[in-house]
From TrEMBL:
Descriptive protein name: E1-alpha branched-chain alpha keto acid dehydrogenase system
Origin: domain of life: Bacteria
Classification via PANTHER family: 2-OXOISOVALERATE DEHYDROGENASE SUBUNIT ALPHA, MITOCHONDRIAL
Keyword presence, Hydrolase: no
Organism of derivation: Streptomyces griseoaurantiacus M045
Gene3D superfamilies assigned: 3.40.50.970
Domain Dehydrogenase E1 component, first and last residues per copy: 136-416
Low complexity bias (residue ranges): 21-97
Length: 459
């Protein structure tokens, strides 16, 4: 047995304490969050932290962060074919090695076309007519959304969730889908519904309280709106696993916002989709605000980089660029159909209006932030491109304006003509074969309804 002197023990403890403190400081520095940029959508999305730049750490569009230890990775390569397939993704943005948080952009806010070797092939076949079609989709979707907001303010709808500012993300991704693909939306995907052929008036029944959805999901492969935050990601993953088992040549896309990305359902969806190599695309519209909670208070890294931890690619795209959203989503869906597994697409955009009509964004964010994003408006951006390229003339815009006003009138008339639902319909489908408790509740409700008639008759 070796006896250690008191002096030697004190010296050892002192040295160990210093080493521990150094290790703690190093760990804290390594865990420092990436600093988000000002929100400017250029070829790079968010700026690098100074420390990452000084250590020479670089990130890729697939979401690889500087925190990965290169030596450790090299020592333990994963040589499986499946692993290679699930991590391969085109480089985003300019392809500069020094950029960490890159943004795929094909159309600048001024309407100038930007070349991108990886994603240009996915929009190379677009004709001037196709571009005008994308513009028309965005304009009519915005007009419908504005009419729905007005109807809620007039008491015709109980609630409405506006998509204002997110038209490019929805139209671009929606037009990338094929008819046999299946879409799982949240409650704000009005533009995607438009692309899937769902009549806009059918979207309003639930918000008026006359039905629980308003359309047959299987007729357009477009699921009913999901109010529960994040649960549709699990539904999409399970459906995609079924598609894979059936051997179908189709893909699934799930929409959610930056707030939903903090939900456990979304994390579980990432896990299951990665493990089972499900043909699903997770399309996250990062509009910067989860109601009143900014993105920087929800994550320490850009959202698209979360995919890395689950073993599949993540890409950040300019969510106000309809061409970039179309190209990236096409790539992700084709990848899913080839059996290469899931992809996370983060559409970096901005919620120009309130979270819903029950929200007041002026209570938690500055107006100058909204003004800055107005300069990146997706519709104005594509209009500038169409005009500069001589792909259209003023008569097109005039005709489209008339068409959008006609759509507004049709929506307004359709909402006001919606019949009130049967008061007792809520009891009909609770159980397939009926239930004594439901019968009792139905009778109580009938008595309650009859009391109003008795009160009116006694006047």
């Amino acid at each position: 047995m070796t006896v250690e002197s008191t002096a030697a023990r004190k010296a050892r403890r002192s040295a160990g304490g210093k080493a521990g403190a150094t290790g703690t400081e190093r760990a804290g520095a390594d865990a420092a969050p990436a600093q988000e940029g000002s929100g400017t959508t250029g070829t790079a999305g968010t700026t690098r932290s100074k420390r990452a730049a000084s250590t020479g750490r670089t990130g890729k569009a697939t979401g690889t962060t500087g925190g990965t230890r290169a030596k450790q990775t090299a020592a333990k390569p994963r040589a499986t074919k499946k692993a290679a397939a699930t991590t391969a993704a085109p480089a985003a943005g300019t392809g500069t090695a020094a950029e960490e948080h890159q943004l795929v952009q094909l159309l600048t806010p001024e309407g100038k076309r930007v070349k991108n070797a990886e994603y240009d092939p996915y929009v190379a076949d677009l004709t001037p007519e196709d571009l005008r079609g994308l513009y028309r989709d965005m304009v009519l979707t915005r007009r419908f959304d504005a009419e729905a907001t007005s109807l809620q303010r007039q008491g015709e709808l109980g609630l409405w969730a506006s998509l204002l500012g997110q038209e490019a993300a929805q139209i671009g991704s929606g037009r990338a889908t094929r008819p046999d693909d299946y879409v799982f939306p949240t409650y704000r995907e009005h533009g995607v519904a438009w692309c899937r052929g769902v009549d806009p008036t059918n979207l309003l029944g639930m918000f008026r309280g006359v039905n629980n959805g308003g359309w047959d999901p299987n007729s357009n492969n477009f699921h009913l709106y999901t109010i529960v935050i994040g649960s549709q990601a699990l539904h999409a993953t399970g459906y995609a696993m079924g598609v894979a088992k059936d051997g179908a040549d189709a893909a699934v896309i799930a929409y959610f916002g930056d707030g939903a990305s903090s939900q456990g359902d979304v994390a579980e969806s990432f896990t299951f989709s990665a493990v089972y190599n499900a043909p699903v695309v997770f399309f996250c519209q990062n509009n910067q605000w989860a109601i009143s909670e900014p993105t920087e208070k929800q994550t320490r890294v850009p959202l698209y980089q979360r995919a890395q931890g689950y073993g599949f690619p993540g890409v950040r795209v300019d969510g106000n660029d309809v061409l970039a959203c179309l190209a990236v989503t096409k790539w992700a869906l084709e990848r899913a159909r080839r059996g290469e597994g899931p992809t996370l697409v983060e559409a970096f955009t901005y919620r120009m209006g309130a979270h819903t009509t029950s929200d007041d964004p002026s209570r938690y964010r500055h107006d100058d932030e909204r003004v800055a994003w107005e300069a990146k408006d997706p519709i104005a951006r594509l209009r500038a491109h169409l005009t500069a390229a001589n792909h259209t003339d003023e008569s097109f815009f005039a005709e489209l304006e008339a068409e959008s006003e006609a759509l507004g009138r049709r929506v307004r008339e359709a909402v006001r003509a919606m019949p009130d639902p049967d008061h007792f319909a809520i009891f009909e489908n609770a159980y397939a074969d009926g239930h004594a408790l439901v019968d009792e509740e139905r009778a109580q409700f009938a008595a309650y309804q009859a009391s109003f008639a008795d009160a009116e008759g006694g006047k």
